[in-house]
Structures are given as C-alpha cells and as structure tokens.
Amino acid sequence: MKHSTNPQTRRGHRGGPARHIGRTLALVLPVFLVLSGTLAVTRVNWTGSPSSVLTASDVSSAEVPTDAVSRAPQDVLRDQLMTELQDKNPGVVLTHLQQAVNGHPSLAKHCSSIARALGRAAVRIYGPTRAQSYARPVCDTAFASGVLAAHS
C-alpha cells in the first residue's frame, strides 16, 4: 500500500496555520464589517445641517429643573426632544434621539414611544404630509406610526 505525502489527500490532515487563519477571518470579518457599518451609520448627521448635535452625555448632564430630578431619564429625554422640536425640524430631533439611545442603551426600550410622541407632535406643528417627509428608521418605524396615528 502506497501512502500519499500530499497534504491534501492525507487523512486526518486539517490544514496548517494559513488555513486556520483563513477560517478565523471568514468567521470574524463579516461580523466586524456589519458592526463597523452599523456604528458608522448611527454617527451620520442625516439632517444635512451642520447644527450642534445632542450627545448622550448632554441628556444625562443637561440642566434639568429641580422637579425633574426624580423623573425617569426617558421622560426627561422625551420632554427635551419635544422642546427641541419647537425650534428644529423633526430630522434633527430624530438624530438626537438616536444618538441618545446609542449613548445610553437603557433608553432603547423607550425609543419607540418617544419617537411616536415626536411623530404626533410633528403633525401638530408641520401637518401630516410634511411630518411624514421626515420619517426614517429611528426606533424602527415608530415616528411614522406616530404621524399616522395623529393623522387618523
């Protein structure tokens, strides 16, 4: 019986270091690309205006009236964004909401309700058609559903 010395046909051979590195890259690289792409998209100022951006630290360190100290962070954020909606377009406010949620993941479970409230308020300020034009996938489609609920 003749035994092969060719590594590709020899039984029990699993490959050398290059094959191990290749398999590792094949598993890790797609995960890395998805995560880096997701993080890059969340940092984009989707409004197109170079206005100041509310950061997550602004939410936690913002000057808050003394009666608001005992309020939940999501309530403070919602009120802050509703006030901001009076001066800025909903696109800017939605960007600030997304940044606040990115900076404080504990706010994520409240993101949809805040976005819906912003959608309803945007209809009161801008009307249903213009408010809908600002809708984008922040907290899924909660802003758009808030616009629809206020318009129905």
Description:
This protein is an all-alpha fold. Helix 3 (73-87) packs antiparallel against helix 4 (90-103), helix 3 runs parallel beside helix 5 and helix 5 (108-126) packs across helix 7 (142-151). The chain is 63% helix and 0% strand. The model has no long low-confidence stretch (mean pLDDT 75).
The geometry reads as elongated
Total strands = 0
Query: What are the secondary-structure elements, in order, as H or E?
Result: HHHHHHH
Helix content: 55-70%
What is the subunit organization of this protein? single chain
The CA-CA distance between the termini, in Å, is: 82 Å
Radius of gyration: 24 Å
Mean pLDDT rating: 75
Catalogue the unreliable spans: none
Task: Write a concise keyword list for the protein shown above.
7 helices, elongated, mainly alpha, 152 residues, single chain
Please give a quick description of this structure.
The protein has 152 residues and is mainly alpha-helical.
Task: Give the helix/strand layout.
Blueprint: H1 17-42, H2 56-61, H3 73-87, H4 90-103, H5 108-126, H6 128-133, H7 142-151
Helix pairs in contact: 3-4, 3-5, 4-5, 5-7
